[in-house]
Write a structure and sequence with these properties.
699 residues; alpha+beta; Aldehyde Oxidoreductase, domain 4; 4 domains; 16 helices; 27 strands; 25% helix
């Protein structure tokens, strides 16, 4: 009989007590002897060059150790990420680009020294404004994730012209920012005698940080150690090495002592990536019975002049519905802006907002229930590739979610005093991503087990779920298994991103534990003092191209109350129903689903940033101006799922769950607001000023 704490059981988080008691130590909480502190200095012009750095006043302040600038900073080696080539020349590609870093005995001293620097610039003309008809827009070869930027099948223009019912809609999603609870931080310590660099970094993958630092500082990778034992969130912004860790290591080498650097929150929007704004045009053609005949989804977004990143927002339209004639394309405009990057469900979050809003508009034009419209366009295979789905239970999600929400009995929109009340829904999808990883399992003479893997727990409960995977494969009680993660001295593993962590790491852990179990079965007598071990490497298995299209699916249902006096929108109820493989731990899974849904509320109602055309920076650059949902904003929130049994995934049968919760949430809320008000708002977020303007335009 398997232990009661095996896969599928709601085991509590292993590190929960450490976190709530403060025993868990994050990157900025490691303070080696003689530790100094660094404060980076961002450029105050949009584009141009530094012409001089006067550090006289800064160096005269008490406790100041040094100032690094393009004129004296250590030279870095090559990197495939130009955002990490810091202080290497005087060029400034966007406002907020770091032009200096001050080092002092205290964080206050470093900040004072940074403020005392006198930096002069020479400015060049710049452009930071994205428009759908920008003359410099181009079609890149690929969008993020390696997806072709342009895909077309059939003749969508002709099919649209011939369609009895058509919708042609434009949508806009503003720039969005990750804002994890723990800002980016690193503590760097050089061992001059060994030539070894140790870094405690707030990141989503220590292996990638080690590789980057080794290249930049001309070190063998074995001479770099990266520790990321506890990470306070990332949402994609910590998925690649960021400037803070390079500056910390650079300052530590220059000053010959450990250096700690924590980015102020106001620096994050310009420094660690953001979700680029996306402008969407969607055209749908359908027969009178709701059968889709044509679909085009055209996306325009910005990228930086430093590094190309194109949000793959049109990609979800390639997999959702059965449409014979389809065109999906991405255009990018290189502007003098910070480099965009990953943010929870890149591509799917903004893309499905636009697609599912357009589907709602089509349902309204046809007079068909929005759930029924989606059911009528369920594809037998993945539309883009023609491959069979490994599992696709979107129909069940739609039907079961509608049943639990009470969708069939929903009333027409109505007024309750000053409030307009409505309901809306949307579908959701996210791909199954699996990356190669390695793991090692040990059986100890005392009857315990240790599993080692350089996974990173960014608050998802990875430690707990990996211990469950191990206990299940070893066929032992969960409390007999210890997990070691978050250190580059452990077996290499993929980063925490793309909802791929558990699927990737769990596969390696399962295989290592299965191999150890087989070895133990062959062993006779007591274990040796060093115990027995087994390792696994999933490189070959994970890289094999599956003959199946593998995706998670879901459905969101929302109820809203719109205040006609203030324009405020309140979500009164939000329900998500998901098909995301075998749910390995219901407790941590529900937390992930709900976390994504809460983030979707922010995307729909409060979160946005403005690129100031005059100053070239994001004006909402802290939590006072960039409004993430608080407890009072979160309604009755329900997350349910089908426990899928999909044998075409990994040994656990799991799909990613970290991101699908945000996908579709904003569309469901927007569709509910449209039903409540009778007006369609096509730009996020649905702030009171936009809502009041729409109400003023009502007939």
């Amino acid at each position: 009989m398997r232990p009661t704490t095996a896969l599928g059981s709601p085991a509590p988080r292993r590190e929960g007590r450490e976190k709530v008691t403060g025993a868990a130590r994050y990157a900025a909480e490691h303070t080696p002897p003689r530790c100094a502190y660094a404060w980076p200095v961002p450029a105050t012009i949009v584009r141009g060059r530094v012409t001089a750095v006067d550090d006289t006043a800064a160096m005269s302040l008490p406790g100041v150790i040094g100032v690094l600038s393009p004129y004296n900073a250590p030279r870095l080696g090559p990197s495939d990420d130009p955002t990490l080539q810091l202080l290497q020349d005087v060029r400034i590609p966007h406002r907020g680009w770091y032009v200096a870093v001050a080092v002092a005995e205290t964080p206050e001293g470093a900040r004072a020294a940074a403020s005392a620097l006198r930096i002069t610039y020479e400015s060049d003309p710049y452009d930071v404004t994205l428009t759908a008809d920008h003359p410099d827009a181009y079609t890149p070869e690929e969008a993020n994730g390696g997806h072709p930027a342009h895909r077309e099948q059939g003749d969508p223009d002709a099919a649209l012209s011939a369609a009895p019912v058509q919708v042609d809609c434009a949508y806009a999603v503003a720039p969005l920012h990750n804002h994890p609870m723990e800002p980016h931080a690193a503590t760097a310590d050089w061992d001059a005698g060994r030539g070894h660099l140790t870094v405690h970094d707030s990141c989503q993958g220590g292996g990638a940080v080690r590789t980057a630092l080794a290249g930049l500082f001309a070190l063998p990778e074995e001479d770099v150690t990266v520790v990321s034992e506890h990470v306070g969130g990332g949402f994609g912004s910590k998925g690649t090495p960021r400037p803070h860790v390079v500056l910390a290591a650079m300052a530590a080498r220059h000053c010959d002592r450990p250096v700690k650097l924590s980015l102020p929150r106001g620096h994050l929007p310009a420094t660690v990536g953001h979700r680029a704004p996306t402008l969407h045009r969607i055209r749908l053609g359908a027969r009178a019975d709701g059968t889709l005949t044509a679909l085009t989804h055209e996306v325009t977004t910005h990228t930086s002049r430093v590094r190309e990143f194109v949000e793959q927002a049109a990609v979800p339209a390639r997999v959702m519905y059965a449409v014979p004639d389809v065109r999906t394309t991405h255009r990018a405009v290189a502007l003098d802006v910070p480099t965009p990057s990953w943010m929870r469900a890149p591509g799917e979050a903004p893309g499905m907002y636009a697609l599912e809003s357009a589907m709602d508009e089509l349902a309204e034009a046809l007079g068909i229930d929005p759930v029924e419209l989606r059911l009528r366009n369920e594809p037998p295979t993945e539309p883009d590739s023609g491959r069979p789905f490994s599992s696709r239970h979107l129909v069940e999600c739609l039907r079961e979610g509608a049943e639990r929400f009470g969708w069939a009995g929903r009333r027409d929109p109505y007024r309750d005093g000053p409030f307009l009340v409505g309901t809306g829904m949307a579908a959701a999808t996210y791909p199954v991503l699996i990356a190669p990883s390695t793991a090692r399992a040990h059986a100890r003479p005392d009857g315990g087990y240790l599993v080692e893997i350089n996974a990173t727990d960014i608050g998802t409960g990875a430690r707990t779920v990996l211990a469950q995977v191990a206990a299940d494969a070893l066929r032992v009680p969960l409390d007999s298994v210890s997990i070691a993660i978050g250190h580059t001295g452990l077996p290499a593993a993929s980063l925490a991103g793309g909802s791929s962590g558990t699927a990737s790491w769990g596969w390696a852990v399962h295989d290592a534990c299965a191999a150890l179990t087989a070895r133990l079965e062959r062993h006779r007598g007591p274990l040796p003092d060093e115990g027995l071990s087994a390792s696994a490497d999933t490189t070959q298995s994970a890289k094999q191209k599956s003959p199946y299209a593998r995706h998670a699916f879901g459905a969101h249902f929302a109820g809203v109350r719109v205040d006609t006096v203030t324009g405020e929108v309140r979500v009164s109820r939000l329900l998500g129903f998901f098909a995301a493989g075998h749910i390995l731990n219901p407790r941590t899974a529900r937390s992930q689903f709900k976390g994504g849904m809460v983030m979707g509320i922010g995307m729909a109602l409060t979160e946005h940033s403005t690129m100031d055309p005059a100053f070239g920076d994001f004006t909402e650059n802290d939590l006072a101006g960039y409004h993430v949902p608080a407890h009072a904003d979160v309604p009755v929130l329900e997350a349910h799922w089908i426990d899928e049994h999909d044998k075409h995934l990994n040994p656990m049968g799991s799909k990613g769950i970290g991101e699908i919760g945000i996908v579709g949430t904003a569309a469901a809320i927007g569709n509910a607001v449209s039903q409540a008000t009778g007006r369609r708002l096509r730009e996020l977020p649905l702030t009171p000023d936009r809502v009041l303007s729409a109400l003023d335009r009502r007939d």
